[in-house]
Amino acid sequence: MRGSLILLIAIQTNALSNRLLPTKLCKDCKHFIAHKKECALFGDTDLIYGKHDYNYANTARKNEDKCGEKALYFEENTNKIVTVPYYFILNAATYWPFMPVALLLVLYAGAFYKLTHPTN
Description:
- Keywords: Membrane, Transmembrane, Transmembrane helix.
- This protein is α+β, with helices and mostly antiparallel strands.
- 48% of the residues lie in helices and 12% in strands.
- A three-stranded antiparallel sheet has the order 1-2-3.
């Protein structure tokens, strides 16, 4: 009984220590393309148009021949102050035709409300 209790404590301690190990996350790597969730290190280049087709970061991390679970090619992104707002704007830019239309709708709704509800 006492031996099984010690074994149980050892297993729990080992499981806890495995969970607390710091892991290298792709979102913190300088090669991570956030808005596409791709890794800039792995992929192919179209020789006709010059377009880059990068592998998804998840695929690169699952493949031990590439970055792998240990993140062999990980490099800390020291420019996060610049890259995070850049990708935020880039993602928002895909919705740019919607923004002016939404603004006009709000303005028209406000004008219509003022016409239908005059203040005395």
